[in-house]
Amino acid sequence: MNNKSEIVFTFPACMGGVASFNYNIINNSHLIKNFRSKVVLIKAKEDNRPLFLETFTADEVITFNYSHKENQFFVAKRLNELLGSAEGAIVTDNALTIAAARLFNNPKTVFHLIHDYFYVNANVRLKDMVDVAIAHSSFFSDAVFASQPSLFARRSFYIPYGVDQVANLPEKNHDVLNLVFLGRLDSGKGVMLLHEMETILRKKNIAVNWTIIGKGPLKSDLIRQWEGKTNVSFHEPDTKDEIYRLLKEQDAFVFPTMFEGTPVSILECLANGVVTITNDLPGGIRDIVTEGIGFRCALGDVNGFVDKIELLHNDRNLLRQMQDNCLQLAKANYDIQKNADNYFTLFMQFEKYRRKNINCSPGMSLLDKKFFPNWLVKIIRKVKNR
């Protein structure tokens, strides 16, 4: 007989930082053996983002399919059945999961993962439906506590996460700087600004190589933008190993993102001795990208990015020292083997943190009430959205 408590992770099935975060925690903790573990990949029919294809080392992996056009009461009911009726922990950043657990009185303790301000705002709306909030940046952990002190005193935690480490700094003695972008190819990540940086660098007679890693809606636009350029390559790796093979050849990570929590991409670059140049955004970026590790530029300041690239181009001793600093910081603070266990140490205290009384209930629209048949709601919403 298996007397282990259950732990259930739920998150969107798409490729990106959220899936990578969960993958790293699940696949690297030695303490996961204390639970019966399940991964529920949530896939909305309307979500066309690329799927996350890595293999999880959980006891069970399930894809949960649904549509936004359905009656969400019945969606939540189906999802709660997957969450299970045994005591334990639900680990999620997903409001649908939390609503499902509370709507049907699931006995598990809810650990809400806070990645950025989107999730802070969600946490405020969810109120005491959340038992514990965990952020991987000190800023967002403080934001949760500050937003609802009476609910999250001693229930809001900052736990850094991590990535796989490499043993030694890869050889990076390049005549021409190798610059990399790693992230989703959309406007929020600032990927369309890279070509402008390339143009300015060319005017300064600074030759660089660009490696653009990622998938997303702007892929075809990027290819057209860079048409005729021989110093750029595009890659769509499906696994972490493929990403690391590309990163070991890179010198600096150019990341003009507009909105972030704690980017997994920065940690992966740290581990491969790649210096980050990014926007100065509150959150995990300020925890990680400090003096001697990388550079933070004013939001929207393309010339600021170019200046830092030029500095590294001209001062290879500085570049080499910063690359070594990145590797040492990654090993000291962002080793996934250690940090994943830190997460599970908290998950194992689920009994301590389960709220005894929950005063709020999930808000549902009129069409999401249980007395409306699912088939009827789908027809109504399909007609309304024509």
UniProtKB/TrEMBL annotation:
It holds the Pfam family Glycos_transf_1. GO terms for molecular function: glycosyltransferase activity. Residues 172-325 form the Glycosyl transferase family domain. This is Glycosyltransferase family 4 protein. It comes from Pinibacter aurantiacus.
